[in-house]
Amino acid sequence: MGAVASRSRRSVLAVPGSNPRFLEKARGLPVDAFFLDLEDAVAPLEKEKARDTVVAALNEGGWDGKVRAVRVNDLGTRWTYRDVIAVVEGAGAELDCLVLPKVTDPAHVRWLDLLLTQIEKAVGLEAGRIGIEAQIEDARGLVRVDEIAAASPRLESLVYGPADFMASINMKTLVVGEQPPGYDVGDAYHHVLMRILMAARANDLQAIDGPYLQVRDVSAFTRSARRTAALGYDGKWVLHPGQVDAANEVFSPTQDDYDHAELILDAYQHATTVQRRGAVMLGDEMLDEASRKMALVVAAKGRAAGL
Ligand code: GLV
Ligand code: MG
User: Fold this and answer.
1) Separation of CA 244 and ligand 1 centre (Å)
2) Domain named HpcH/HpaI aldolase/citrate lyase: which ranges (predicted)?
3) ipTM surpassing 0.95, yes or no?
4) Predicted TM-score (pTM) of this structure
5) Sequence-distant contacts of 289-296: CB under 8 A, at least 24 apart
6) What pLDDT, in 10s, does the model give residues 78-100?
7) Which of 135, 165, 198, 234 lies at a 20 to 30 A Cα distance from 5?
8) Are 211 and 294 found together in one domain?
9) Cα dihedral across residues 177, 182, 184, 188: positive or negative
């Protein structure tokens, strides 16, 4: 994984950009990352005012090492370009990423990349510092996900948007993240999740799972998060304080797995350098170079989680 893509995003808090009370509360939560939303959590009549609220919240600071992002409106609306200009001119030095929703075409990402480059030059920000996270939220985005994932060096992650996605394909359910009733032959989301994950990994990007909307049901959230964590996803959006600890835990390795990974790395290092062997036994387990790569992933996530 590239250097930027290694920023921790186990828990990514969605914060409506028009609500100063939520913005204040968000500061105190132990999330890895957050985004201040100008899109679907903000009513059309509040869109313009929300830009000022979001800029002020970023400039006030107090975000304590979290990855700071803003979600702008999608390119099918009239708001997007002004969102980008207002936020980056107003608070570019306090911003790590922009989240672009409903990406259906690599040109959307290239457009944002170019606009960011222009604004960085105009206001004297470090070139290329602001990253992009692209939401894949419908059938059009999914069928072009490989091109989208390769569209800009600013890209840091692909984010699955389950609510919009389920609407876009006419899935016969209203419960976001749960299996649609009547489909009892497997996981209805497997193809979509894997497709996004493959495009992300092939381009050294993170893959982030979207929200779980039944916010009071933490055990259902945890079950849903475990599924994407098991596939290899790096984190999940959280909408409620009750979901934060679960996300941080599910997307970190267990202490046992972390300790085991460090053991594999030590044993394999010793085997290849001192014993000059490419394969070695650790207890009952045969280790080779592929074992080292798997252990590196777990160890890196464990170190980032402070294990
Ligand atoms: C998130 O944006 C979603 O549509 O689920
Ligand atoms: Mg959406």
Assistant:
1) 18
2) 10-241
3) yes
4) 0.94
5) 291/264, 292/264, 292/265, 292/268, 294/261, 294/264, 295/260, 295/261, 295/262, 295/264, 295/265, 295/268, 296/261, 296/265
6) 999 999 999 999 999 999 999 99
7) 165
8) no
9) negative
Comparing 2-11, 101-110, 208-217, 290-299, which segment has the lowest mean pLDDT?
A: 2-11
DSSP states of 121-153 as a string? HHHTPPTT-SEEEEEE-SHHHHHTHHHHHTS-T
The CA dihedral of 122, 117, 58, 212, to the nearest 10 degrees, is 160
| Ligand 1 pocket at CB < 6 A | 101, 135, 137, 161-164, 210-211
Q: Number of folded domains in the chain?
A: 2
Reported residue count of the chain is: 307
Question: Does 238 have pLDDT greater than 70?
Answer: yes
- Residue that has been written with the tokens 């600890």 in this structure: 245
User: Which pLDDT tens digit goes with each residue over 29-77?
Assistant: 999 999 999 999 999 999 999 999 999 999 999 998 999 999 999 999 9
Instruction: Decide if 247 contacts 236 (C-beta within 8 A).
Output: yes
Contact 47, 82 (CB under 8 A): no
Domain co-membership, 128 together with 239: yes
From the annotation, which residues make up the binding site for Mg(2+)? 137, 164
Ligand located closest to 163 CA:
1
**Which residue range is the domain that position 233 belongs to?**
11-251
Give dist(CA 90, CA 155) in Å, integer: 22
